[in-house]
Amino acid sequence: MTCTQMIVKILTRLNLAASNPFFTSAQLLALLNDGYKNFCARTLALKKFVFIDVVADQTAYNLPSDHYKVLWLGYDDEAIAVVSADDLDYQDENWIGRSGMPYAFVEELAGLTQIKLHLTPGTSSTALSDDTTAQTSFESWVDNLLLYHAYEPADMVAGSTPSLETSYQWALIYYVLWKAFDQEGEFKDSLQAEFYKARYESYVKKKSEFFSPVEIGSGSEPDPAGEILDWNQEEIEYNLQDVSFLAIEYGGRLSFGDNDDNGTWRMAVDSSGDLAISKRVSGSYTEKGGFE
User: Fold this and answer.
1) Biggest alpha carbon distance in the chain?
2) Mapping DSSP to helix (H, G, I), strand (E, B) and coil, where does residue 269 land?
3) Which residue of 13, 121, 127, 268 has the fewest C-beta atoms within 10 A of its own C-beta?
4) Radius of gyration for the alpha carbons in the chain, expressed in angstroms and rounded
5) 113 vs 188: CA distance, rounded Å
6) Are 208 and 230 in contact (CB under 8 A)?
């Protein structure tokens, strides 16, 4: 739905005409944008890869202006792990600026607007001007930082569409209805406000549970039993201390494990809604169990 179509649905549920004494289209659009940002901040619904150019002997790097949270960071074809500044201070009080191949980073300093590497590379990266390459190719980032992060959406304008699945666009409608009925004045209706707030919160909970981001640290793999990977139909391979991890999702199928003919497991929901777990053996999958 476009935000214009969403406003029409909101006005219908408010039982108001387009021209009314309570809310202008601009006010409703502002509430939609507030809901859009609130929803994405709480669920980390929007995620993308971004290149960060490395400068020789530079420890600190600014995060993108739309940044919410680092989900994964890699340098020179290797994952690097997030650590606390306290831990690094305990190990080495002069860690900032110490030279070497980065194996960890700190995000908590500078108000979460920067990352600081440990160790600090001594050579600059090959500048990459087109960050869209990060969405489709992982062959060119070997001497760059590759950031996978949750980000804040840009404000919608009349006619634009939020970057959410249609079902979750309804969450934004419920957010606006909640806030509209909760405003002081003769339109205020606490019961209606609580009803739509509950509807909105249910969508936040659902999105948070079923599309939770996967945090990948060096030398470890996500627990497939406890995480659901949402890679937007992309195929991504990570080499984590000589352990190859492959996550593929196509049409509801999720595969994970070693990237070879005999090491990949798959979770798939069949047409009846049952969850089956299979293992690939000699190029084909054999079902090993499942849940109804």
Assistant:
1) 69
2) strand
3) 127
4) 23
5) 38
6) no
DSSP string, 2-63: -HHHHHHHHHHHHT--SS-SS--HHHHHHHHHHHHHHHHHHH---EEEEEE---TT--EEEP
What's the rounded Cα separation, in Å, for the pair 131 and 140?
11
Q: How far separated are the first and last CA of the chain, in Å rounded?
A: 33
What are 279's strand-pairing partners? 265, 286
Neighbour count for residue 150 (Cβ, 10 Å): 19
- Coil/strand/helix, residue 258: coil
Dihedral over alpha carbons 82, 88, 92, 95 (to 10 degrees): 50
What one-character-per-residue DSSP string does 144-184 give?
SEEEEEEEPPPPP-TT---SS-HHHHHHHHHHHHHHHHHSS
Instruction: Assign residue 289 a region (left: φ > 0; alpha: ψ between -120 and 50; beta: otherwise).
Output: left
Amino acid occupying residue 285 = Y
Q: Which two tokens stand for residue 290?
A: 């499942």
- Residue 144 and residue 102 in contact, taking contact as beta carbons nearer than 8 Å: no
Residue corresponding to tokens 């400068």: 55
Q: Report yes or no on whether pTM surpasses 0.90.
A: no
What is the chain's length? Answer: 292
Question: Residue 239: what pLDDT?
Answer: 34
Give the model's pLDDT for residue 107: 84
Q: Which two tokens stand for residue 57?
A: 């002997």
pLDDT greater at residue 127 or residue 260: 127
Cβ atoms of 23 and 14 within 8 Å: the answer is: yes
Sign of CA dihedral 110, 112, 114, 120: positive
pLDDT at residue number 218: 37
